[in-house]
């Protein structure tokens, strides 16, 4: 009898906590494709509907549309997707347009009908799982956008108490003004209390700030997220507007969620982002992103600032730079193609997330179809207008990078747990990055560089006279006598080398 109970307990705990909870360890090998649900795919047979991002309106993308195009995503080597917040948002045309992006929640207990039914969302989760892929949901808990005008002046006055539920009519689960902070606008971003407790937006477009310091509110949000995770079958969370909510709140919330969490802390300094890695599994590595974009935006960019930023992340974050989200583009920032159209610079910058310690996060369409929209909303182009072209050079390049990373992970060389190292032998225009068994050579010389870019790596990174393959061109070359590498590039393109024998497991494009 006891033995039987023990067996039941073991089976239960295996099922509940070992098998199903997708924690940080289960995520770290993954590669994430970020989707703005409204702009990725329409339902049904692919037809061409016009969608003008500058109109700030819903364009019709759905969860079923994503299900229909999972092969397109998996074909590029991604094994996880991050989708827009799926909850019911404020309806109608606000002073800032429609909530097609999902970041203006109104009813957290219901799902955004523009994206389909809750069964479609469950079907997306099930379809992903049947392909061995993970689902990451984007969630916003900092604020709500009520349907009724908020008179912030009258918020706590007699008028408000006479009709306290007014602006929260239609809001759930926070059905009363008492669930929100007193209105005030964030004026001083160096004052943490103000950032966490005052409101984003303004009188015209107020974002009602949820009182997440309140234990009752925090408890409701914890219960809510647990239910969402089990109802839908969610493997990870991307936490929005992290710096506007206290660390204490995140600690409880992420514990309760029990799945991998990655937070958005928009800042150029690890002084600011690193504290959050104590309460969230990882952050999107914005401090490195700022340097990456500026270093590769022109041949005048400062490559050593990228090295400094990456080393800083490795040293400042709770888990080093491991598990951080490494990205070149996202829905909040101008696409890299809007910053430079130099094809060599773009290729070099695009390589970065795949050779980094963290997880690559690639923004839909951005890179694989060469879109170049600038600041919001121009970077929210509809993907269907490309016809899901799997022969675009960037689609192929991302495929190679994903497969090369997987080959490195499977090589037995501890790729996932060995911090990337910057090697000597790189001048002002070049970087040499070792993450065994991979060696990446980057340059910001650009496509018009008049002489040859030269990497002279005299340290031993490979075996002597070993056959190496540049995964971007499939060209084979040899390491030097001492295991170093001496290579040139005539067109400013990057090189990502793996020992030929390591590419056999799980990798075959060459
Ligand atoms: C998803 O829904 C479709 C019908 O729309 C169904 O054929 C398919 O089996 C469902 N997939 C999963 C994994 O539930
Ligand atoms: C907002 O409330 C204040 C104070 O009660 C009142 O004076 C003002 O007229 C109200 N504004 C609007 C637009 O209702
Ligand atoms: C809420 O108050 C606003 C004025 O502040 C008013 O225009 C609106 O009709 C009220 N809505 C409800 C549902 O009472
Ligand atoms: C929120 O959504 C749930 C589920 O659809 C619904 O039952 C509830 O009435 C909604 N709440 C409000 C305030 O509209
Ligand atoms: C902003 O807040 C910081 C930290 O609380 C404070 O030191 C600084 O004086 C404030 N700046 C202004 C302009 O109020
Ligand atoms: C920070 O902001 C809070 C709320 O606005 C305020 O009470 C406090 O005095 C500010 N602190 C500093 C140092 O400016
Ligand atoms: C309020 O915010 C909206 C949306 O961001 C913006 O368009 C508008 O200019 C702002 N109004 C003021 C008075 O700052
Ligand atoms: C970082 O961001 C802050 C605030 O936005 C800005 O004042 C500062 O100049 C930036 N620092 C660097 C090194 O880019
Ligand atoms: C981070 O903090 C250190 C030490 O206080 C300081 O020297 C450095 O300038 C800060 N960096 C940024 C980007 O704020
Ligand atoms: C490049 O950035 C580093 C900081 O990471 C700085 O120390 C160095 O002076 C910069 N070089 C140039 C040429 O601006
Ligand atoms: C879809 O429509 C756009 C704009 O009308 C056009 O530029 C594009 O070529 C079309 N794409 C396909 C795949 O038909
Ligand atoms: C590479 O660097 C080594 C050591 O600094 C030097 O001896 C060698 O001549 C260099 N090779 C080339 C081709 O520049």
TrEMBL record:
Entry coiled-coil feature ranges: none
All copies of domain Glycosyl hydrolase family 13 catalytic, residue ranges: 34-405
GO biological process terms, semicolon-separated: carbohydrate catabolic process
InterPro entries assigned: A-amylase-like, A_amylase_C_dom, GH, GH13_cat_dom, Glyco_hydro_b
Keywords from the named record: Calcium, Carbohydrate metabolism, Disulfide bond, Glycoprotein, Glycosidase, Hydrolase, Metal-binding, Signal
Listed EC numbers: 3.2.1.1
Gene Ontology terms for molecular function: alpha-amylase activity; calcium ion binding
Disulfide bonds: 51-59, 184-198
Needed cofactors: Ca(2+)
Protein name listed in UniProt: alpha-amylase
Pfam families: A_amylase_dom_C, Alpha-amylase
Naturally occurring in which organism (per UniProt): Pisolithus microcarpus 441
Annotated site (Transition state stabilizer): 332
Signal peptide: 1-21
Catalytic activity of the protein: Endohydrolysis of (1->4)-alpha-D-glucosidic linkages in polysaccharides containing three or more (1->4)-alpha-linked D-glucose units
PANTHER family: ALPHA-AMYLASE 1, ALPHA-AMYLASE FAMILY MEMBER
Keyword DNA damage attached: no
Binding site residues for substrate: 104, 143, 238, 332
Family: Belongs to the glycosyl hydrolase 13 family.
